[in-house]
């Protein structure tokens, strides 16, 4: 019979039962007495020695510790109540182990997906910021300018395009009929192949709208390609 040292990381659980250990375990009688005491405890507690409870036995009342202890007890109860806990079927155990590994892989992939989506959002945010700077809605420091504040007040149609038309003077020389006609271009409708011959007083504002739309599209394209 020998006394074997055990490293602390190998200890998984502490019991609330304490044995009085002789200061010197080298004599055979001392080791024999400890062996008998351990055997006695095993016979008295066939289901295992009672564990040391930090809350009940050590009187630790820290709310965080109490909550952790309750969580551990709940998880242990679920673990011991699981049918697999007493199963001797190695194939079944391997299947559950593989299931746990697959679930872990799924969580890792979901985490990568979230990171990828966040990165895409950041890239999109940078691109939109470049567009707003190029169009004069914000300055180099990201501060909203007059043009940007005007765009914020537009809640129908394409805010950037409408603001561009406002600030380039497209609406200045139009009467209320022309304004209504031009504003109708911002109402979403089904695409039609019907050819419409516009009068000169409507063709020019439409041309200005198309030029402004192309300008904004070009800015979008440049910002998306700029790394």
From TrEMBL:
SMART domains: DSHCT. Gene3D superfamilies: 1.10.3380.30, 2.40.30.300. The keyword NADP does not apply. Keywords: ATP-binding, Helicase, Hydrolase, Nucleotide-binding. The keyword Cell wall biogenesis/degradation does not apply. Residues 139-227 form the ATP-dependent RNA helicase Ski2/MTR4 C-terminal domain. One of its GO terms (molecular function) is ATP binding. This is ATP-dependent RNA helicase Ski2/MTR4 C-terminal domain-containing protein. Pfam families: DSHCT (PF08148), MTR4_beta-barrel (PF13234). It comes from Citrus sinensis.
